Amino acid sequence: MSFELADLVQQLVLLALYGSAGAYFAGRHHKARAIALAEAAPPPPRRQDDRAQLEELFARCRAAEETALTLRKSLLQIPEIAQRLLGANNLREIPEIALELVEELFAPSFSVFYRVQRGEFVAAALRGVCEFELGHRLKKGEGVVGWTAIRQLPFTAEDALHESRTVRERDLAIAHPRDGFSVCLPILSGEETIGVILVGPTLRTLENPTETGRTIGLLTAVAITSIQLLQREQHLAMTDGLTGLLNKRTILEYLGARLIKDRQRPISVFLFDIDFFKKYNDANGHLAGDDLLKGMGALIREHSRDGEGLGRYGGEEFVLVMDDVPKAHALAAAERLRNLVERADFPNRANQPGGKVTVSGGVATWPGDGTDVASLLGAADEALYEAKRTGRNRVVAYHVPDLASSGDDGLELELDKPS
User: Fold this and answer.
1) Which of 190, 222, 240, 418 has the fewest C-beta atoms lying within 10 Å of its C-beta?
2) Sheet of strand 359-366: strand arrangement
3) How high is the pLDDT of residue 61?
């Protein structure tokens, strides 16, 4: 944990400790005073109200000591919880850990973590008893949650009383917790509100609840943005910078991971490229060629099934991995995609041979056409060569060659593949 993050955790502990100190030392003072009174010699006969006051004083001392002891136990947990928050591996873990931190510090009757989803704030985690359920949605500006998102500052029940009557009746009344709330905490990333924590009525009084809440928000924001940054870096490392599809290394790893499994069902690959791509580049320029590659990738991705691996194999070549798909079905899917490309209104298509942009491809299926990644893609590549040789704008399924009829034709195709 960096110095700045360690400082945040320390600040959080100090804030909570400072909030408990007043109650604790006040209790010690009252207890000492009560003992001194009790031991004074010899007291005059006490009236009934004196005894009641003394018992009340002792009760307050015991309550203050119990509160301080409970909070001290919580303070021991805070650094460990904060460390888990900052060390979370995925975004799904964050809401629960953040609410655990809120619970240790505030001891609320309930707490709800709202995260941004498609422009709305959605309850992703909750603790305690609350009328709001997981999935509860609020728009920006609606209720204390939406209002906190706009203000981007911790918002308390006392703050709500100082808002205008219009705001209280029009905005804050929406989805207002029927048991009230203590504080609402925004989670900020730059100038954007990425989450809100609603803290219900608390059983513990802190000296600086808004500052404590602000620190919780900062820790949570750091945890979220760190994971998002890591995911962004991982995405960039896995994808092709031009098309946004999986890059060659990742698509090969994806296919390899599927073949490693002890699988009983087939896996097919469709390897295809753009016909006459060099002519397109020469006639329209390389920038237009890049736009064509991006458009091709977007079209195929839009019409592929969820869970299929689609990547740019290199240059104008693409590969689609179809899991649990036999060869006949894979060939039909590949033909459907080829037909989509032929009918698509790509820029400058009229200047291409035949007045349209087309693709040629080959289909191969494990285990019959290959026993590993290299042999399976090699089989699909041979089928692609055959599609080029027999006229382009077509899809060919790989067939195991008849050894009795094999000759030198395959070598010629390897040496002179049409574009």
Assistant:
1) 190
2) 309-314, 317-323, 267-274, 359-366, 395-397
3) 66
